[in-house]
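The instructor's notes for this session suggest beginning with a concrete chain rather than abstract definitions. Hand out the sequence below and ask the class to guess, before any prediction is shown, which regions might be ordered.
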Amino acid sequence: MLHIYNATSSDFPIIQEIAYVTWPDTFGAILSKEQISYMLEMMYSTASLTEQTSKKGHQFLLVKDETKHLGYASYELNYKGLSKTKIHKIYILPEAQGKGVGKLLMNSITAIAKENQDTILSLNVNRDNSAFDFYKNIGFEKVGEENIDIGDGFLMEDFIMDKKLV
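After discussion, reveal the predicted structure:
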């Protein structure tokens, strides 16, 4: 049985642990080890997670089964003042993929977005990430592309995907 809950700062070590396990598996074939290391530090240091949650309005959800945590997601309601919920992160441990964890997280964020009168879910996905197909299969459409300079000579080369909520 899966259990989902709102994470707090005391859960940051769990989020960090999942990130450090999932990222090499997710991005190992498409990003350099240097870029993965740089991005993990940039996005998952305790200081960065604190800033995301306390200053940027990101909220994290964690999923666990009876024995361990399996994944997390973060989202932001009313992104840029629009009726849009931005999904900033969603990562599932490799051994838990295909077991409904991602769908549970997405369904939870969808319900939260609707409760807050947001009409669109939005996310970015690396252009070479196989998760693109997962997002398409659950109703997201590619609405654009962007290259984001994250410093140190690294770029995030993403598709922008939206899903209309009805």
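Then share the key points. The first strand starts at residue 3 and ends at 6. Residues 12-27 form the longest helix (16 residues).
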